[in-house]
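To the structural biology subgroup,

Please find below the input and predicted structure for N-acetyltransferase domain-containing protein, which we are adding to the shared reference set this quarter. The sequence is reproduced verbatim from the submission form. If anyone notices a discrepancy with their own records, reply to this email rather than editing the shared folder directly, so we keep one authoritative version.
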Amino acid sequence: MRTAEINGEGVRLRAFRPEDAEALAEGYNDPVSQRFLTVLPSPFTVAHAETFIAERIDALFAEGGAFYAVADPETDELLGGVGFDKSVPSRGQAEIGYWVGPWARRRGVATAAVRAMSAHALKHGLQRLELLTHWDNPVSQRVALASGFRREGVRRGAQPRRDGGRDDMLAFARLAEDDGEPIARLLPDLPGGELTDGVVRLRPLGPGDLGFLTELITLPDVVATSVPPEPPSPGKIRQRCFWAEAHWLAGNRADLVIEDAATGEPAGDIGLFNDEPATAQAMIGYSMLPAFRGRGFATRAAQLLSLWVFAETGVARLIAGAVPANLASQRVLEKAGFKREAYLRSRLPGPDGGRVDDVQYVLLAEDLLAEGPRLDG
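Predicted structure (tokenized):
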């Protein structure tokens, strides 16, 4: 399967050369590479790079794998590397991996390289390629989806960390029979990265929101209306922030921060839980910091999110619930256009192992078309 070069869209895969050693060392010593490629020595020196080029690449090919330099087709500048290893001949399977130097990122290099390498490998004997990536590496997840790899599940404890622990990994795969086209997403990105009506702004939750989210979802009254009604651990809060984009890309939920559009201050959060794609039904939930309650922010956020959901996703029916005593939340939903539809007895887990009732509200796309957006607070 070893070949002189493989041409991709805007990239050329070629053999590594001794003169690539300095750029290889710079790329592998980059903080992003060191974070996610935990098998690398730290620091990764030019001497490491020279040994890698002289010895390790030939060994990879001898083991049934491959590794190529990703180069600029015009200048031959080294941009990164791509290849596969962990070959299982009896299954026609291997695991693809790649890196891109910080000087070449955000140019589509990784996607072009992975697409070219995948097409070549699946055309010359392999039947299945896997791509594993960390939960908190959404860039790699986007590359996988753009390269025709479908998310299949989670490999628990699959990746050793430098501190001796192990990380779960998201598993994506592409088969020889797949067309290689980008995988369609259930939840697209927000237009321009946000939704706003000039009063509130919704943007995706991210790692930088750890302090704000901790303050919000550990408030006693927020905990009391959570499912289950228990304070989340610091680890769970961190996961929610650092894994939010992975969930969005998977299409199962979208977590957003509600901001005061005038000041940029975080005021609350709102989430879309896409748990029933087969029936085109999803759920929303929200919570607000005390200083921003009673100002119509939650209503506006629910309206903005609903408009986006019906316009940009396949969801046809939005549901939301509130415990019977939470009259403020019920008023938010009614002002946002939701209709009360059911009273569900003992639907939710309650304090001390008990159960609590749930008042359920529903919003349909035709409801919004009939009434139009109601952004009056």
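Summary notes: Residues 46-62 form the longest helix (17 residues). DSSP finds twelve helices and 16 strands in the chain.

Regards,
Lab coordination
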